[in-house]
Amino acid sequence: MLLLKLLMYLGAHAFVPPGPNDLGSDLAVFLVIYGLVMDGNPISLNPGWSAPQGLIGSHNKYEGDTSPTRGDLFVYGNSWKLQIPQFQELFDLQPDAATANYDIRVMAQLRKITFERSVRTNPYFFYGPLFMANHTAEYPEGILDQFNLKSFFGITGESGAFVKKDGWERIPFGWGKRAIGDEYGIVEFAEDILYFTSEYPNTITVGGNTGTVNSFTPIDFSDLTSGVYDIPTLLSENNIACFLLQTAQLTAPDILKGLFADITEPLGILTEMTGGLLSSLGSCPQLQEVDTTRMSIFPGSGATL
């Protein structure tokens, strides 16, 4: 049976174009366009493009190992199903329901745990170059408690006996966008990476296991970028954001060749988008190439960073 729902688009429901006070549009635009080009359904936009890849086919393009709740692809055979033990691990980092808040500090702690687990259990682990929080008057920096954490992931039941209900994932009632003036954009994303790095330096590592567990081998950023970036350079000003955008731009042609017979149009869209975002960051180090040949020692690296 085909069900149709009429949508009211006048009056209070009229379309309002994005404005300067909306959610961090730079990061949103990057994620949407990058996801569409790499894994979306471009046939619906242009019949000349290839078949959709989908998020299930997005490993090392749009998602990777060390997910907070999803398993590593080469360990579980998929990277999209929530693993109850991993959710339990996250949940247990804030055991007191009265004070639980799964904020950036907790997620940084979890990143260390997931990184070390992948090194220990996934022979093909590859780690290439945040999470939502609710804003209230009492918690201007946001709070994500146990109830809402479970709601996000479609989890029911009590700790120790959690049940995952597929299709029940949701944004909790009463949640809205981040506070005006506190939008989460590219710069804020970079600041979170810097915080992760200050707490757990492996966050800024690039490398992977070489076919056996506990064989993690890092790649020197200077070698990867022909001397343009090293750790001190990356940690300066907006350079983390510069590096991420430049890497997406420079590695896109090789990735897209495996997806499209003609990469001209999707590459043009991605290049225009990343170029605009890079301009908004101001002065970035001039990265001309990323030496992806150094990834060949990692069997789990696939085609991309």
TrEMBL record:
One of its GO terms (molecular function) is peroxidase activity. Residues 23-191 form the Heme haloperoxidase family profile domain. It comes from the Eukaryota. PANTHER family: HEME HALOPEROXIDASE FAMILY PROFILE DOMAIN-CONTAINING PROTEIN, STERIGMATOCYSTIN BIOSYNTHESIS PEROXIDASE STCC-RELATED. This is Heme haloperoxidase family profile domain-containing protein. Belongs to the chloroperoxidase family. Its cofactor is heme b. Coiled coil: none annotated. Signal peptide: none annotated. The keyword Heme applies.
